[in-house]
Amino acid sequence: MQGSPAEAVIRVVIGEDSYIVRKGIEEVLASEEGVEVVGAAATFGGVLKAVESEAPDVLVTDIRMPPTLRDEGVQLASRLRLTHPGIGVVLLSQYTSPFYVLKLLEDGSAGRAYLLKEHVATHAQLGAAVAAVARGGSVIDPVVVETLVERRVQEEGSRISDLTSRERDVLAALAQGKSNASIGSQLFLSKGAVEKHINSIFRKLDMPDEATVDRRVFAALLFLADESSAEL
């Protein structure tokens, strides 16, 4: 971000091929204090040009755009990780399947968010995601995580059934990219209680005990998204 901490403005470029949706996103972000939309484009190439010319803090992009209408948003996030690692990316999607989520995060979850398009009109959620990725954080739409947790709970013999109800809540919060402090605040748990639950989850699910939030998000999503649910 640019400017002093007190007056820093998050500069945003939007990638969306639908004119109406693009304008809607601009209006939502324009209503957010401390956010400025500095560019918009409707194609993969157009977004790259806007990023180069405007040097934004965050890119908010659709998952599918011309020329192929397949996974341009994911490709942009992957490319920016190499060429402009300081730019956060909020990927907008209509899919609750983990396929695109995992592709988005395979190079790390820091500075990356995955939101469902139905929540674009929610000022608080979109604005919070933009602010989070600008700081290097990560956000996964709660609906996507809830869908994954429910699928795994219903699977016969799933290890997730060994978790207590509270541990499932903590696992879901981990997969959404929340820090220990945020989890504690959300679930009314002390710092020590959160750490105890996380250690128990990792032990029961045989997950790697990664120290960073970035790696914990991906580890949690990898566990929740088995091969059958990771397909379109």
Q: How would you portray this structure in words?
A:
This protein is an alpha/beta fold. It folds into 2 domains: 10-140, Rossmann fold (3-Layer(aba) Sandwich), CATH 3.40.50.2300; 143-224, Winged helix-like DNA-binding domain superfamily/Winged helix DNA-binding domain (Arc Repressor Mutant, subunit A, Orthogonal Bundle), CATH 1.10.10. Helices cover 49% and strands 14% of the residues. The protein has 10 helices and 6 strands. It has helices at residues 19-30, 44-54, 72-83, 98-105, 123-134, 142-154, 165-175, 180-187, 191-205, 213-224; strands at 10-15, 35-41, 58-62, 88-93, 112-116, 138-140. It has a 6-stranded parallel sheet, with helices on both faces. Helix 5 links the parallel strand 5 (112-116) and strand 6. Helix 6 packs across helix 7 and helix 7 (165-175) crosses helix 9 (191-205). It is globular. The protein starts with 9 loop residues before the first strand and ends in an 8-residue tail after the last helix.
